[in-house]
Design goal:
Blueprint (H helix, E strand, L loop, with lengths): L5 E3 L4 E3 L6 E3 L21 H14 L9 E4 L5 E4 L1 H16 L9 E5 L4 H13 L2 E4 L6 H11 L3 E4 L1 H10 L8 E4 L9 E2 H7 L14 E6 L9 E5 H10 L12 E2 L8 H13 L3 E5 L10 E4 L11 E7 L16 H6 L1 E2 L2 E10 L4 E7 L4 E3 L2 E3 L1 H9 L4 E11 L3 E10 L8 H15 L7 E2 L7 E6 L41 H14 L9 E4 L5 E4 L1 H18 L7 E4 L5 H13 L2 E4 L6 H11 L3 E4 L4 H7 L8 E4 L9 E2 H7 L14 E6 L9 E5 L1 H4 L4 H7 L6 E4 L6 H13 L3 E5 L6 H10 L4 E4 L1 H8 L13 E4 L6 H11 L3 E7 L3 E5 L13 E2 L5 E4 L12 E6 L11 E2 L3 H6 L1 E2 L2 E10 L5 E6 L4 E3 L2 E3 L1 H9 L4 E11 L3 E10 L8 H15 L8 E4 L13 H8 L4
Parallel strand pairs: 1-13, 4-14, 6-7, 6-8, 8-9, 9-10, 13-14, 26-36, 28-29, 28-30, 30-31, 31-32, 35-36, 35-37, 37-38, 38-39, 51-52
Antiparallel strand pairs: 1-19, 2-3, 4-5, 11-12, 15-16, 16-18, 17-18, 18-19, 20-21, 22-23, 23-25, 24-25, 26-27, 33-34, 34-44, 39-40, 40-41, 42-43, 43-46, 45-46, 46-47, 48-49, 50-51
GO molecular function: ATP binding; fatty-acyl-CoA synthase activity; medium-chain fatty acid-CoA ligase activity; metal ion binding
GO biological process, one term: fatty acid biosynthetic process
Subcellular location: Mitochondrion
């Protein structure tokens, strides 16, 4: 017994297949219960309305810590899943049914499994997918299985090894049976491997909204008066019934543990092990019990093995004599002494202390050994001690339990230091020892630093779990998942992992290539590109691997680039953009995307400050590059993506075509640099935000994948400019991590009509775009915007009005979710798919980012207090956050505010963890998702002879949200010019010397600009005037 105050021993019904009797153990006058009568909702699904509800309660800290399912067998194996893990694993199961199995809503699935954890996953997965599950006992013979498959017309069956052998003998006579799923450690011809599919499945599933009266399950009767009949149960007769009657049958509470011992085939099992306990948030305890043995009896005994009377504290023992029950392990391997020492009289002593009351309830009192019970996890002190002693600083150590008001207990380690480490800074050494323990043992066991430290005795506390920066949304650590399912249900990394090596090309792209070769991925393309001329490109992952390996060879062999060299990538939405990005990742070359709207001065600045050795661009920008190339001594290679050749440029397409497809991807460290994204230049020239390979790794984390919940069958369209960080995320990293199809339209110019036509023409399921895109679509006055395949939309980059979210939902039927991020952060918070939408909110922090509202000194502010958006960077900088501003240590230090990176944006956070954007602490202008620095526009205006002085601020716009407005003080000789003509002239001038999207759409001529006493322009005053603020 690991947690909880009460364990109700055998508290439900057991239906024996050995006899026709029903044994009731500690039931509560079932016959006298009066069932509730309440209004039945039109829609209900137990998995989403109950399991996901408790998962949310866990994430919000409103459910006691502990498992929802606690499973053991006779070999010492154990599974402990909380509701968050059940939610995630059952979503993966639903994806297995919908994906590899091809099952559709209403299809029937026969489930013949013993008491193994997969039974509960299959049942919940069926509920999520709208499938009808039909449990059956493993004691069935061939004729029983044949009858059930034939009369039910089951499309699929889930079974273990023994039943699978029987199924194969009758399957030819069951024409409806299309899919056979095997739950086993072995393989079997003709059967899909459930555990392998589960491990590979997406953790996010778009749930099926089932009607309350829709069929959920079929239970076969016992057939006492003939052949068994099929009793169909709806979602209301199962789930809603349990929800209405919660507590009336078993009087369960969230802190309770219930042990149902029914065969998994009988309806009392789903009631007692799933519906009743999980409606109440209680824990279901399950023992495999391949054969029922009533001799498995718990007693409270004294030091001599005598059974103590109720109300007396003693040791908890399991009777092992005269016959050792099935389900109890045989003994400690190669440790006869330890095995014998745990035998006391007729009992096996568990080492726990308890009191048993008159009704058979056990009250846990403590432990007799030194085991540490932290949030339900039993941690052996020797494991932590051995890990610590491997570090040269540790002479000796002792690890014990220590009281904690929340977790009950935590681990405390007393460490005696070696003499030459005594002078070390305690805090730095603490971090070093913590990291060391993480590397050599399970990460959840690492010591967290206590607030009190000593020179010779350093105290640490091990706190289970990881600091939850996102109220209402948190994922269980990796070590909690699927502990006995051979890794099934887990992702390769969790939200807080930091593997030493990672490379998106080899770890993600090549993995999907292998899946395609093995026939484990659908034939959808990896990249689907179109233009308005009818041209189309469809590349599979295998083709992407081939082409990006060729690109890698072009960059290294032909161009002579090496790991760490920088490459400027200025391409529109053409297929070659993807090849260059991945080719750089394969070789360790740092790619630097840039928008095709740049002019010569923008390109010159970026090439000079970055020291780029190569550039890849098109015909359009080649002349601009040539005009500045002589001023860029580092630039050695120019690659042209074109159907034509150009003197002084290498032909990219010809080189790729002739290059070898054989290339060995570098083994990049996770913290090695991967890309540089230029910021918008809000306070001067754009800065170089340097990102490592962890930026790509973060897309692999479960929390990040929940933002879009992409799956292999999705076709994802991100409309971001290829020069922005959002394109790298939305058009490359996020969809390909999930194995989805990236859809891309060339769109040389933004046209809402083309976008609408594209949604109707192509099977796009998800979209990511700036709010201005959605606004312009809504303004086209189409009679119908019900796009045939669109399921999910996400937006970010600028403010989204609540009424715009509502209008989009009303006209398209699709919810519009908001996200937030920067060049330095990528997407750092958002309203995750399926999460409650609060119109106007940016959503919640996405792990591993711990985001808080801070003041100017880095102090965390309480809810509903305005402050700066800060991302915690101490004691550990999270994966996915930029490394630093390249060649700008002063600015890097400037944005560090205490333990946080200060984003420079202002916001508040509410009690539920939702962020509300208020504005910017700098003067950046956010027009249609483009962050424009006023200095860039002001500098361009200053080059015109008419302009004596200017100030550029944001101004409200009904379509773009914000536009650039310039307040201009004219030189005297231009004061008599026609304002309209001069406005156009200045606008055209700005377009000619900088990116066209930066030109001021509004111009106001003024006699003077508001300034501070030190002569600085008060842009905030002008901005307030524009937005009608005082």
């Amino acid at each position: 017994m690991h947690w909880g105050r009460q364990l109700q021993a055998l508290c439900i019904l057991w239906r024996s297949q050995m006899s026709n009797h029903t044994i009731r153990i500690h039931t509560r006058q079932l016959a006298s219960l009066q069932w509730g009568h309440q209004e039945v909702p039109a829609k209900f699904n137990f998995a989403t309305d109950v399991i996901d509800h408790w998962a949310g309660m866990e994430k919000a800290g409103k459910r006691p810590p502990g498992p929802a399912l606690w499973w053991v067998n006779g070999n010492g194996d154990e599974v402990m899943w909380n509701f968050s893990q059940l939610s995630e694993l059952s979503q993966q199961t639903a994806n297995v049914f919908a994906g590899p199995c091809g099952l559709q809503r209403g299809d029937r699935v026969t489930v013949v499994l013993p008491r193994v954890p997969e039974w509960w996953l299959v049942i919940l997965g069926c509920m999520r997918a709208g499938l009808v599950f039909m449990p059956g006992t493993i004691q069935m013979k061939a004729k029983d299985i044949l009858y059930r498959l034939q009369v039910s017309k089951a499309k699929a069956i889930v079974a273990g090894d023994e039943v699978a052998e029987i199924v194969d003998t009758v399957a030819p006579e069951c024409p409806s049976l299309k899919t056979k799923l095997l739950v086993s450690e072995k393989k079997r011809d003709g059967w899909l491997d459930f555990k392998t599919l589960l491990w590979k499945a997406s953790t996010t599933h778009c749930f099926v909204e089932t009607g309350s009266q829709e069929a959920a399950a079929i239970y076969f009767t016992s057939g006492t008066s003939g052949l068994p009949k099929m009793a169909e149960h709806s979602h209301s007769s199962l789930g809603i019934k349990a929800k209405m009657d919660a507590g009336k049958w078993t009087d369960l509470q969230a802190s309770d543990i219930i042990w149902p011992i029914s065969d998994t085939a009988w309806i009392v099992n789903i009631l007692g092990s799933l519906l009743e306990p999980w409606t109440s948030g209680a824990c279901t305890f399950i023992h495999l019990l391949p054969k029922f043995d009533p001799v498995i009896i718990l007693k409270v005994i004294d030091d001599k093995g005598n059974v103590l009377p109720p109300g007396t504290e003693g040791d908890v023992g399991i009777r092992v004599k005269p016959i050792r029950p099935i389900g109890i392990f045989s003994g400690y391997v190669d440790n006869l002494e330890k095995t014998e020492s745990n035998i006391r009289g007729d009992f096996w002593v568990l080492g726990d202390r308890a009191i048993k009351d008159q009704d058979g309830y056990f009250r846990f009192m403590g432990r007799t050994d030194d085991i540490i019970n932290s949030s339900g996890y039993r941690i052996g002190p020797s494991e932590v001690e051995n890990a610590l002693t491997e570090h040269p600083a540790v002479v000796e150590t002792a690890v014990v339990s220590s009281p904690d008001p929340i977790r009950g207990e935590v681990v405390k380690a007393f460490v005696v230091l070696a003499p030459h480490f005594l002078s070390r800074d305690p805090e730095e050494l603490t971090k070093e020892l913590q990291q060391h323990v993480k590397l050599v043992t399970a990460p959840y066991k690492y010591p967290r630093k206590d607030c009190s430290t000593m020179q010779r005795l350093m105290k640490f506390r091990v706190l289970w779990g990881i600091h939850m920066s996102c109220p209402g949304f948190h994922h269980a650590p990796q070590h909690l998942r699927c502990r006995s399912l051979s890794g099934a249900g887990t992702l390769r990394w969790n939200d807080y992992d930091r593997p030493e090596e990672f490379n998106f090309a080899s770890d993600v792209l090549d993995r999907w290539t292998q899946m395609e070769k093995e026939g484990k991925r659908s034939p959808n393309p990896a990249l689907w590109w179109v233009n308005d001329q009818g041209d189309e490109v469809k590349w599979s992952f295998r083709e992407m691997t081939d082409l990006t390996c060729r690109t890698a060879n072009v960059l290294t062999q032909t161009c002579g680039l090496q790991t760490g060299d920088r490459l400027a990538l200025i391409l529109p939405r053409v297929p070659e953009w993807w090849l260059v990005c991945v080719g750089c990742i394969r070789t360790g070359i740092i790619f630097m995307p840039g928008t095709t709207q740049m002019k010569a001065k923008d390109i010159l600045y970026r090439l000079q400050v970055s020291g780029a050795k190569a550039i890849v661009t098109t015909d359009t920008l080649a002349p601009e590059v040539e005009s500045v190339a002589p001023e860029c001594p580092s630039l050695k290679t120019k690659l042209l993506v074109s159907d034509h050749s150009r003197e002084g440029w290498l032909d990219f397409r010809s080189l790729v075509k002739s290059a070898s497809p054989d290339h060995i991807c570098i083994k990049s460290k996770t913290l090695d640099p991967m890309a540089i994204f230029f910021t918008s230049g809000t306070t001067g020239f754009p800065k170089m935000a340097k990102h490592n390979h962890g930026f790509a790794l973060r897309s692999y984390f479960p929390a990040c994948r929940k933002l879009l919940q992409l799956k292999m069958s999705d076709v994802f369209w991100c409309l971001s400019d290829t020069g922005w960080i959002l394109a790298a995320l939305g058009s490359l990293l996020e969809p390909w991590t999930a194995g989805s199809t990236v859809f891309a339209h060339h769109l040389p110019q933004f046209d809402p009509k083309v976008i609408i036509e594209t949604f109707f023409k192509y099977p796009i399921t998800q979209c990511l775009a700036a709010p201005s895109v959605y606004r312009m679509i809504l303004q086209q006055n189409y009679t119908s915007l019900r796009f045939p395949t669109l399921e999910h939309c996400c937006t970010g980059g600028e403010a989204l009005l609540p009424e715009e979210q509502e209008q989009w939902k009303r006209q398209t039927g699709v919810l519009l979710y908001q996200a937030y991020g920067q060049s330095e952060t990528g997407i750092s918070c958002g309203t995750l798919r399926g999460m409650k939408i609060k119109p106007g909110s940016m959503g919640k922090a996405i792990p591993p980012f711990d985001i808080q509202i801070i003041d100017d000194k880095g102090n965390i502010q309480p809810p509903n207090t305005e402050g700066n958006i800060g991302i915690r960077i101490k004691p550990t900088r999270p994966i996915g956050l930029f490394m630093y501003y390249e060649d700008n240590p002063e600015k890097t230090a400037e944005v560090e505010c205490g333990d946080f990176y200060n984003t420079g944006d202002r916001a508040t956070i509410d009690e539920e963890g939702y962020f509300w954007f208020l504005g910017r602490s700098d003067d950046v202008i956010n027009a249609s998702g483009y962050r424009i620095g006023p200095a860039e526009v002001e500098n361009a205006l200053a080059e015109h002879p008419a302009v004596a002085e200017s100030a550029v601020v944001s101004s409200p716009d009904p379509v773009r949200g914000e536009v650039v407005k310039a307040f201009i003080v004219l030189n005297p000789e231009f004061s008599s010019r026609d304002p309209g003509e001069l406005t156009k002239e200045l606008q055209q001038h700005v377009k000619s010397v900088t990116a066209p999207y930066k030109y001021p759409r509004k111009v106001e001529f003024v006699s003077e600009l508001p300034k501070t006493i030190t002569g600085k322009i008060k842009r905030s005053e002008l901005r307030k005037k524009e937005f009608g603020q005082k």
